[in-house]
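Bug #77: duplicate submission created two jobs. Keeping one. Sequence:
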Amino acid sequence: MDQLIQLKTCLDAIGLNSLVAWQALAAACVTVKLKTGENFICQAGTVAFIIEGIIKEYDSSLRTKPAIVNLLTANEYVVTFVGSNHHFYRASCPSTLVYIDNTRQWQLFDQFNELQSLYFNIEDLHFQSRQRRTQLLEFNTARERIKAFIRKNRSILPFLRKKDIANYLCLEYNLFVRHYSKLL
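Kept job's structure:
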C-alpha cells in the first residue's frame, strides 16, 4: 500500500486531480519485483512506475550489441512505446515496479479524460530522462563525461557495473576504467 502512496504522490505532482480516477488506477495496478539482471516484460504502450531500484533501458536497433540509452531510478517512469520493440528494460539491482495492464490502461483513458493528459506528462518525463544521456554525450572528452556522470549519479554508482556505465557513456571500457578510478 505504501507503494501506491508513493505512486499517487508522483502522479499528483504532474496533474492527477480526480480521486475517482486515482481509485480506478490503484485498483488496476500490478506490482512486479525484479531480481538483478531480470527483464521487465510487458506489452508495448505500457507505463510502469519504479518504486525502488534501477532499470536500464536498452536499444538493440541497428547494433551488434545493445546500448544502454537510459538509466531510470525510483520515482521515475518506464514508458514502452508502441513500435519500439527493439527496446528492452533490465533491472540493475533488485527493483520493484508498479504498472497497469495495457488493455486496462486504455480502458481507463477512455473512462477518465484527465488520464490522457497525465499519460502525455509521463511520456514527457521519460523523454527528459533520455535527454540526460544525450547531454552527457555532448562533453568532448571521456574525462568530462565521466565526471558529469559521477556528479549526477553518485547515489546509484554502487549498483552499476563499470561496463554498464562505459556503455551508457559510449566509451571503450579500458578508457573508461582509466579515468573512472581517478575521478572517484
